[in-house]
Write a structure and sequence with these properties.
Order of helices and strands of chain A: HHHHHHHHHHH
Structural class of chain B: alpha/beta
Radius of gyration of chain B: 23 Å
Strand order of the largest sheet of chain B: 2-1-3-4-5
Number of helices of chain B: 18
Distance between the termini of chain A: 50 Å
Oligomer: heterodimer
Number of strands of chain B: 14
Structural class of chain A: mainly alpha
Radius of gyration of chain A: 19 Å
Distance between the termini of chain B: 56 Å
Helix content of chain A: over 70%
Strand content of chain A: under 5%
Chain lengths: ~300, ~425
């Protein structure tokens, strides 16, 4: 095997391992927060095994079909969504040298992934040929078109001081002060984007219980497991991106770089998962209104400030 | 070996249960939320156990069979306080029946484990795998109407375009939601026309409990019409009911863990729970996102509520009507009706939280008083021997839901705290 091949395999293994550990962590964290909010004490042992037990049950369950579904797209949509999350993780640097793809235009790639996430979720709702999933798909389109510009503005604002679209340069530019500190609105905005793209907690509109599970209403068995894993993977990808672009990535004292990336990603995950259990579902209309009239101008001001700073 | 390990792991998973809730079982099913071994799911596709809770009137038999067939294999049905349907009894599989006094949670877990251990076969489908009506289509996709659209393949209308609220031409999807849709009150089915996420039309289907022979066994509120009951018990029951409603509303708003906490509180509720309820009220009333999710949603004007009499929905719109206002016993306790003014879902939440706290206060200071009245203020409104105001709230639905988004429609339906059994018991009211 030549060097390029070996490197490619290492990369695949690294991303696979990150997804495996990450999705498991999301499952455990979610259960711990749920138990804490519900009261009656947290049983860590049960939370640690819960993701395995749930996954085992889903693997043994039948995959039910619907009447005249678009079977190919129905199977591909979760794979596409999860694949986008995995592709996103490949550009996250774990240290100044340790990165699967040190892509010079990483920010642009990220924007493309986000846009395709819209397609994946919409197809997941459209393919089963059923009303609730379809309405869930519609909702995601409304939601995604509202948060996507926010995300792009936040990312461009962190690229400006680094004078580069590469994530390694963006992390290096945070030596001294993190972007989250330099641009105070950036982190809250990024949390909104993370909740939105993985439709978690208050922004779980496409898969909400008022739609009996929305795009996942007709999904059962292994197909549902893949969908749940893909959503958790997206949550990890966006938390990792937040940790890298806003919280200084691998930078930090004492500990090695990759550990810092993991710690910061986990910290963001905890915040997002906790918000999921504490905030109620936002109304679709209210979210779209808020995103375009409040959050977007805020993101624009953030970008303006970053631009003026860069000109100085 | 791998499959054996999977089966053992899966048997220990929290049991995903889809509850098909019918007459008189709403509170009992809600209690299952506090158990970590049970996971109440929002679609039958996510369940292994179908829990049929409460007596099923004949009108609900077919919808129940449809729900049953949606549950993926391996599946089992647990009949709780209900008679297994005749076609189920003829199966080789003995139906799992549980009475009101039995431990339903352990029956559910046993069924789940037996399924995964292979000790119990999965239940076969109940309905034949065939279309509900003949094909009757023309052309390659059977559309049979004009151009690409129209027609009624398999008896269901194809979505045709209609102008929406913004003047755009959009597909209109017609469907029936209910009678086992978890956010809705048991038995409520709405015939809905949706354009995207917007409800064009929503009409309640015929109340399935109307032709029923069995009636609700009765609450303490109906008991107070016949015999003397302690006032404290009446007020405690009111507080408990309102808290259970709050828990349900929180669950529908996507907060299941918080909802389970409130269910736990309602189970432990006593005369000393005033501080806990006050804390909950304070916590929820200060939550800006909850406020924004409920404010301005499901507004009902005072004028339209004029005919429905008393109850929290009327009081949340500023109508200070309460049977207790004319009652000397309550007057001695210094009772005054709490009201709110906006008449929306947020006002109804604050109203019920305030009334729960007030009821606990009354239960504490009126410990010795007894009640027996011709008219009682139940948690839904005035209750007398001739009926309650529950039926008139149902009639408000079509006007309330038309033109709003589906998520808001669900919120609005929940906020009315409808009870179809009571509506059926009250009077032969035609709905729909």
């Amino acid at each position: 095997m030549d060097v390029a091949h070996a490197a490619a395999w290492t990369a695949v293994l690294a991303v696979g391992a990150a997804l495996f550990v990450g999705t498991y962590a999301v499952g455990v964290l979610d259960e711990v927060v749920r138990q804490a909010v519900r009261g009656g004490g947290v049983r860590v042992g049960s939370a640690l095994t819960l993701p395995w037990r749930r996954a085992a049950l889903l693997l043994l369950q039948e995959r039910v079909g619907t009447e005249r579904p678009d079977a190919v797209l129905w199977a591909l949509a979760p794979a596409l969504y999860g694949g986008l999350a995995a592709a996103g993780l490949t550009i996250i640097p774990l240290s100044s040298t340790l990165v699967v793809a040190d892509f010079p235009a990483a920010i642009v790639l990220w924007g493309a992934l986000e846009a395709l996430a819209l397609v994946a979720v919409y197809l997941h709702g459209w393919a089963p040929n059923s009303v609730f999933p379809l309405v869930g798909g519609y909702r995601f389109v409304a939601q995604a078109t509202s948060y996507e510009l926010l995300s792009m503005f936040v990312l461009i604002a962190v690229a400006l001081p680094a004078q580069s679209l590469a994530l390694t340069d963006i992390v290096r530019a945070q030596d001294g002060v993190w972007n989250a500190v330099r641009h105070p609105p950036a982190l809250p905005l990024w949390i909104v984007v993370t909740l939105g793209v993985s439709f978690w907690g208050p922004l779980n509109l496409p898969d909400g219980n008022d739609l009996a599970g929305g795009t996942a209403a007709e999904v059962s068995g292994s197909q549902r497991l893949v969908w749940a894993l893909a959503r958790a993977a997206m949550l990890i990808a966006f938390s990792a991106m937040g940790a890298t672009a806003l919280l200084g990535g691998w930078l930090g004292p004492w500990l090695p770089g990759p550990v810092w990336v993991a710690v910061k990603t986990l910290a963001l995950l905890v915040v997002v998962v906790a918000l999921g259990h504490l905030l109620p579902r936002v109304r679709v209309e209210r979210f779209v209104f808020l995103a375009w009239t409040v959050l977007l101008p805020l993101a624009f001001v953030d970008l303006l400030v970053a631009g003026l700073e860069a000109l100085r | 070996v791998a499959v054996g390990l999977l089966r053992r792991l899966a048997a220990c998973a929290p049991v995903p249960v889809f509850p098909a809730i019918s007459a008189g079982a709403r509170d009992l099913v809600q209690d299952l939320q506090v158990l970590p071994e049970i996971d109440l799911v929002s679609t039958p596709r996510h369940a292994t156990v179908l829990l049929v809770a409460g007596w099923i009137p004949s009108a609900l038999a077919r919808p129940l069979a449809q729900v049953h067939d949606q549950v993926p294999a391996p599946r089992a049905t647990v009949w709780w306080m209900s008679e297994p349907a005749p076609h189920v009894r003829t199966l080789e599989l003995p139906p799992i029946t549980v009475t009101a006094s039995d431990d339903v949670a352990s029956a559910i877990m046993q069924a789940h484990r037996a399924l995964l251990a292979g000790e119990r076969r999965t239940e076969p489908t109940l309905l034949p795998h065939e279309p509900p009506a003949p094909w009757k289509g023309v052309g390659p996709y059977g559309q049979g109407g004009e151009g690409m659209m129209g027609g009624k393949p398999y008896g269901r209308p194809m979505p045709m375009t209609h102008p929406d609220r913004d003047g755009l031409e959009l597909d209109q999807l017609s469907l029936t939601i209910g009678p086992f849709f978890p956010p809705f009150p048991p038995g409520l089915a709405l015939d809905v026309a949706l354009q995207g996420d917007v409800v064009q039309k929503a009409v309640p289907a015929v109340n399935p409990f109307v032709d029923g022979m069995q009636r609700q066994t009765g609450s303490i509120f109906t008991a107070a019409l016949r015999t003397e009951v302690p006032l404290a018990e009446v007020e405690l029951a009111r507080a408990r009911h309102h808290l259970r409603w709050v828990a349900h509303a929180l669950r529908v708003q996507g907060l299941p863990a918080l909802a389970a906490r409130v269910v736990g509180l309602s189970q432990r509720l006593g005369r000393t729970s005033v501080p806990a309820v006050r804390r909950l009220r304070w916590l929820l009333s200060l939550n800006p996102l909850l406020r924004s999710a409920l404010r301005g949603v499901g507004v009902i004007d005072r004028d339209r509520l004029d005919t429905i009499g008393s109850g929290p929905v009327a009081r949340a719109a500023g109508l200070a009507r309460d049977v207790r206002l004319d009652d000397p016993v309550y007057a001695d306790l210094g009772f005054q009706a709490v009201t709110h003014h906006d008449g929306d879902c947020w006002a109804r939440l604050l109203q019920r939280l305030a009334e729960a706290e007030q009821a606990l206060e009354l239960a504490r200071i009126g410990e010795r008083s007894m009640l027996r009245r011709d008219r009682v203020e139940s948690p839904w409104g005035e209750q007398s021997a001739s009926g309650s105001s529950a039926a008139s709230l149902l009639a408000l639905l079509p006007a309330l839901l038309a033109g709003i988004e589906w998520g808001d429609a669900v919120t609005a339906v929940v906020s009315l705290d409808l009870d179809l059994e009571q509506a059926a018991a009250s009077a032969p009211v035609e709905v729909g």
